[in-house]
Every structure is written in C-alpha cells, then in structure tokens.
Amino acid sequence: MRDITIVRLIPDSDHVDTVASWTYAEWGHLHPGATGESWREAFRRECGKGGVPSVFVAMQGNRPVGTAALMAEDMNSRRELSPWLASVFVLPEWRGWGIASALIRRVEEEAADSGFRQFYLYTPDQQGLYRRLGWQDHEELNYRGEAVTIMLRQLEA
Ligand SMILES: CC(C)(COP(=O)(O)OP(=O)(O)OC[C@H]1O[C@@H](n2cnc3c(N)ncnc32)[C@H](O)[C@@H]1OP(=O)(O)O)[C@@H](O)C(=O)NCCC(=O)NCCS
C-alpha cells in the first residue's frame, strides 16, 4: 500500500489543522453555525488517547493522506446508538489503494479492544465499500436532507 502507516492523531500534532480542514471542507456545510475555528477545536477534542474518542491518520512519510475516527456520537436522531465510525476521508489523489479500508480496520480494532461488540456508521453513498469490509445494513433514513444508510459492524470478542 505504497508505504502507508496508520497512526493515532494526538491533539497537539502539527497535522490536526490539516486533517480538520479536510473534514470541514467535506462535511462542514452539514453543520450550520460551524466555523473553521470551531470545527478545528471540536476535532482536536476528538483526538483522544485511546478508545472513544480516537482519530487515526494514514501517513505517507511525514504527510497525512487520510483519516478515520471512533466517536461516541455522530447522529443527533439516533443518540441511543454508540459508538460510531466517522470522518472517513482519503485525499483524492490517494484513493483506490486500500487506504480507507486500512483506516476502517484500525478503527474496528480500537472499538473491539475497548470492549464494544458492535458499532455504527452512516453513509449516503459508500455502502459497497463498507459491505465488502463486513458491515451490514441496519436502517435507511433521511438525515440532514439526505437519504443515508446506518450500517452495523459486529466485532469479535
Ligand atoms: C470513500 C473513500 C474514503 C474511499 O477511500 P479509498 O482509500 O479510495 O478506499 P479503498 O481504496 O479502501 O477502497 C475504495 C476502492 O478501491 C479499491 N481498492 C482497494 N485496494 C485497492 C488497491 N490496492 N488497488 C486498487 N484498488 C483498490 C476497493 O476495492 C474499492 O473499490 P470501489 O471503487 O469499487 O469502491 C474516499 O473516496 C473519500 O475520501 N471520499 C470522500 C469522503 C467520503 O465519501 N467518505 C465516506 C463517508 S461515509
């Protein structure tokens, strides 16, 4: 996979601003009232030391090229479900090399090691990617004006 390593993102890392800017550009519009600064600080708080919350980055040398997170909440209307795989993003020029798959596997491992037996994600259009990785369709619904699928991953003990 082109010398990619998956590492935990710590809050004082130089890469926090870069990675937060990707996720703000991709999903910021779904959060009215969020600014680049408020987003970055909320993102920094998700960079926990282990378990929930955690953020991981795919590094090519010293350069971050993708990210994925384990979060307590990701959907206001389904607060009973927790935790969530969230913020899966790979830079466009690095797509199609299995980097998202490796990030997702790392988040699954983190959730399993934290004692969870299942966790969730929602996606408008990437169901195929997650199904290939063993995720199951859980519920179809409209969320923030979009048709999305909540998916469920069973984890090994
Ligand atoms: C969705 C996204 C994260 C996928 O990232 P990625 O690193 O390209 O994902 P992967 O490489 O693991 O898998 C994607 C595809 O590459 C294929 N692939 C995996 N490893 C490969 C390899 N070594 N060589 C070629 N192709 C490969 C996979 O089969 C998959 O095929 P598909 O195009 O039919 O889906 C990326 O496109 C992205 O950031 N999109 C914008 C944000 C987004 O939609 N995030 C998901 C929110 S739910």
Automatic annotation (TrEMBL):
<dbReference type="Pfam" id="PF13508">
    <property type="entry name" value="Acetyltransf_7"/>
</dbReference>
<keyword id="KW-0808">Transferase</keyword>
<dbReference type="InterPro" id="IPR016181">
    <property type="entry name" value="Acyl_CoA_acyltransferase"/>
</dbReference>
<feature type="domain" description="N-acetyltransferase">
    <location>
        <begin position="4"/>
        <end position="156"/>
    </location>
</feature>
<protein>
    <submittedName>
        <fullName>GNAT family N-acetyltransferase</fullName>
    </submittedName>
</protein>
<dbReference type="GO" id="GO:0016747">
    <property type="term" value="F:acyltransferase activity, transferring groups other than amino-acyl groups"/>
</dbReference>
<dbReference type="InterPro" id="IPR050832">
    <property type="entry name" value="Bact_Acetyltransf"/>
</dbReference>
<dbReference type="InterPro" id="IPR000182">
    <property type="entry name" value="GNAT_dom"/>
</dbReference>
<keyword id="KW-0012">Acyltransferase</keyword>
